[in-house]
Amino acid sequence: MTEKRTIKASEMKPDFKYQISKMHGGEKLMRCFQCGTCTSDCPIARFSDTYRPRQIIRMAQLGLKERVLASDTLWLCAACFTCTDRCPQDVEVASVIRVLRNLAAEEGHIPQVFKDECTSILESGYAYRIPELRLKKRESVGLPALPKGNPDSLCKSLRGVGFLKHVEKKGD
Amino acid sequence: MAQKKYLMFLGCAIPYRVSAFEISARKTLTKLGVELVEMPEFNCCGLPLDPVSHEMMLILAARNLALAEEKGLDIITLCPGCAGTLKKVNKMLKEDKALRDEVNCHLKEAGLQFKGTVDAKHFVQVLMEDIGLENIKKSVVKPLTTLRVAEHNGCHILRPKEFIGFDDPEDPKMLKALIETTGATCLDYMDETECCGAPSVGVNDKVALELARDKLNHIKQVNAEALVTICPFCHIMYDTNELRIEKMFNEVYGIPVLHFTQLLGLAMGIPPDELAFSELRVDSSKIVKKICEGKTNA
């Protein structure tokens, strides 16, 4: 994302910022005045050459929709919320980034790790498949049995959730 | 001490690979008079899916809150991520009727309803608010007076302030105060409130490990004998990856990563073999031995 590229007016989608502003967590995108507190306080930005929250916010404001949503760096945010707490303009930077990720996911840009967790939740209720060995071990160390997931009930309440079309169903 | 009754919300990471946390937490919480009731049914709190679908996160969290409401009990979690998510969604749904109606439409399909009648707390909050430092101190029979440790709160017990509103995110004091009830000294170090990097594992492991390495370096610089955590993910990040980071960056740490509940358990006089130290990746036997012999030193 730090790659120097000329921004063409034709690339900018002026409606994009309004689309984001209508979503939960994205309401205050337009307040950002580019002070850079988010980037300077971001622990990920310190170790990544490409992840810069201020830049992501600016690109969103400018409506560089395709470039933001297709960018790998969008997925680097660790959701530590330091930027959200310290932003002098109360932009809720981490939430805006989450909104952008949700929009990227809608377009099919989804790191595998999220697809795997989603599949596991749909099948078992748990984000990770708990190995049989672990379940047996619980018994042997005197821990109570794990609460049962209820995939049927879960899938009923998730009916109509758009994201599910991106997750391959196994079994049915 | 009044008996406090909570619904135990384990989350996914703890049963998957952090059982030492659960074992020691159940022992210490029970000893402090917290009654833990098992969840009748469970699904992930929703946090892992928030990046890809906020809608799905809301429904997953609301389902758990609705299940707890049916039981009429507040939720206790060991994972700050679960506590933070359940707290946040609870607040959002209570305050925003349109959102609540929307989520309830989904829950109705499964015969559930969110009403907003229960609370969700991380166990540190339960210790601070329901038990109190004085009572915890009273439960300590073997003070760890010569032990010097560093703490790592983790992000989701602190931030975002608006939804968590529990400790001061810029200068957190509660975990320190809890550690000090055990008699141990809790050291200050650089970038103490910074993220461990765990959420970036799987997206960019190198960046995540560099972050953890940076923290371990700071902890080493203050000569902490152990790192104390209260989050399963932070624990995995440091304990499971410490050896990997040592190899990758040519560092030497040898810093055991303990769950706070293990430390408290020792101070309460619970035998170490009941606190699952053998589950930890970084060898903790030396420090446990020192603690038990009362001969810790920096």
Question: Can you describe this structure?
Answer:
The complex is a heterodimer of chains A (172) and B (298). Chain A is mainly α. Chain A is built from ten helices and no strands. In chain A, α4 crosses α7. In chain A, 41% of the residues are buried. The model of chain A has no long low-confidence stretch (mean pLDDT 94). Chain B has 298 residues and is of the alpha/beta class. Chain B folds into two domains: 4-123, Up-down Bundle (Glutathione S-transferase Yfyf (Class Pi), Chain A, domain 2); 133-293, Rossmann fold, CATH 3.40.50. In chain B, the strands form two sheets. In chain B, strands 2-1-3-4 form a four-stranded parallel sheet, with helices on both faces. A four-stranded parallel sheet of chain B has the order 6-5-7-8, with helices on both faces. In chain B, α4 packs across α5 (97-108) and α10 packs across α12 (242-249). The longest helix of chain B is centred in the N-terminal third of the chain and has 18 residues, at 54-71. Chain B starts with a strand and ends in a 5-residue tail after the last helix. The interface between A and B is large, with 62 and 61 residues.
Strand proportion of chain B, as a percent range, falls in 5-15%
Q: Domains counted in the coordinates of chain A: how many?
A: 2
Strand residues, percent of chain A: under 5%
What name is given to the CATH topology of the largest domain in chain B? Rossmann fold
Question: What is the approximate shape of chain B?
Answer: globular
Q: What is the CATH first-level class name of the largest domain in chain B?
A: Alpha Beta
Mean of the pLDDT scores of chain B? 95
Overall average residue pLDDT of chain A: 94
What is the CATH architecture annotation of the largest domain in chain B? 3-Layer(aba) Sandwich
What structural class do the secondary elements of chain B suggest? alpha/beta
The profile of the biggest β sheet of chain B is: 4 strands, parallel
Output the CATH class name of the largest domain in chain A: Mainly Alpha
Unreliable residue stretches of chain A = none
- Radius of gyration of chain B (CA) equals 19 Å
Biggest beta-sheet profile of chain A: none
User: Into which percent range does the helicity of residues of chain B fall?
Assistant: 40-55%
Q: Strand sequence of the main sheet of chain B, in spatial order?
A: 2-1-3-4
The chain pair with the largest interface is: A-B, 62 and 61 residues
Give the CA-based shape of chain A: elongated
Distance between the termini of chain B: 35 Å
- Per DSSP, the total helix count of chain A is 10
